[in-house]
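Lab channel / #folding
Pinned by the channel admin:
"Please post every new chain as: sequence first, then the structure tokens as a reply. Keep commentary short and put observations after the output so the thread stays searchable."

First post following the new format, from NK:
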Amino acid sequence: MRILVTNGDGINAPGLKVIEAIAAEIAGPGGEVWTVAPAFEQSGVAHKISYTHPMMIAKLGERRYAAEGSPADCVLAGIFDVLDGARPDLVLSGVNRGNNSAENTLYSGTIGGAMEAALQGLKAIALSQYIGPRSQDMDGGMFEPAVAHGVSVVRALIDKGLWEDEDYRVFYNVNFPPVPADEVKGMKVAAQGFRKNTSFGVEPHISPSGRKFLWIKGGPQNVATKPGTDAAADLDGWVSITPMRCDLTAHDTLDLLRERLE
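Reply from TO:
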């Protein structure tokens, strides 16, 4: 199996090492793991592509590259330059430091990498590690749940996931819970949730030169969403698995809107 790996936290992020190890085990001794990751952190860039300016790409080692672009850029670079059209069997994006549950999904560069892979007709899985109050105290580090359960989750999705060949094909968003590995309850298929009163905002600061700058500021992350949704499952100790598509149409409103407007 040929696997292409990218992430949103950058080429030097510890979560990238985790996903490379997962990919190596999934690919097997006769497989290939190719890494094309952003040269610098690209958190919050969503599905951005750098079509208005070129990006530099550098080979750092055997099957390992850094590109000055977003995760979606890295997927494009991997498919059409690094692999020279030899399409991967699977694209893995992550493991992100922090959850990409609920509304975070819409901002996530990690999700953007998987989204671009899906648009290219490839199997794609985004993986993120929820960080909570207990994460710093885990013996295996904050990525302990992803390290312990990542291979089994990815294998389960490869073997039993729905991989239909639609125009907007399904890709998967996986979030590991913020609990020690031995307390993970299993996998839970969950819808994307919504955290109320935790939307992004800005916090102004005055620099030493007297200029005003704005920091983007998020809300509390350890807030459960509705039962049956991703963050609720994660905070209850489950690995949440959310099937997603790039189609943004609100299909549930189409008939009513036609009645009103046509």
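NK: The CA atoms of residues 120 and 132 lie 34 Å apart.
TO: also worth noting, The domain at 2-195+224-261 is CATH 3.40.1210.10 (Stationary-phase Survival Protein Sure Homolog; Chain: A,).
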